[in-house]
Amino acid sequence: YSMNVRKYGEFNAAINSMRVNPVFAGRVCFRAWICLTKPSNKKSSAKWLEKWLRNKLGLNNGVSSKRLACAALVRILLWADEASGLELTDGDEEPLLAVLLGLNGRFMAELAHACCGMIESIPFHLADEIMSGLGGSNLFFF
User: Fold this and answer.
1) Cys bridge to 64: 8, 13, 59, 139, which one at CB 3.0-4.6 A?
2) Is a pLDDT exceeding 80 seen at residue 63?
3) In sequence order, what DSSP letters do the residues of 85-119 get, joined into one string?
4) Contact of 142 with 96, CB cutoff 8 Å
5) C-alpha to C-alpha distances, 25 to 19, 29, 63, 90, 130, nearest whole angstrom
6) Is 26 helix (H, G, I), strand (E, B) or coil?
């Protein structure tokens, strides 16, 4: 489901609605992947998963035609779980799914580049803070 995101509204699936949020769906799938992968096979399974994701996204040198799917994957893999209440001052750091999966840093950088500039690639609470700050005095003009 996360790989086939086509509309911006799919990220706004309310808790009470019948729609599935692509970020939630992806987190469930990747957490299941972690549980099913043997620690001794982590490196080879990470390589296979990376190759499969590249193929499904058409990701080549940081460019993909599936930018919304890339944004969903960036939120899934590179941001802490939004439901757990991200505390930036908390000393206990939750490992990112990309790290737990053992994904290559270059792949993650290319994935982030593919959706660069899309507000969907960051958690909603940060997007709200950024958008509310645009009218404030912290806006820089050149």
Assistant:
1) 59
2) yes
3) ---TT-SSPPPPHHHHHT--HHHHHHHHHHTTT-G
4) no
5) 11, 6, 24, 26, 25
6) helix
Radius of gyration of the chain (CA): 16
Take residue 90 and report the two structure tokens written for it. Answer: 């908390």
Three-class secondary structure of residue 134 per DSSP: coil
Angle at the Cα of 73 (from 1 to 86), degrees rounded to 5?
115
The pLDDT value given to residue 86: 47
Q: Are 82 and 126 in contact (CB under 8 A)?
A: no
Amino acid occupying residue 134: L
Distance CA 112, CA 117 (A): 9
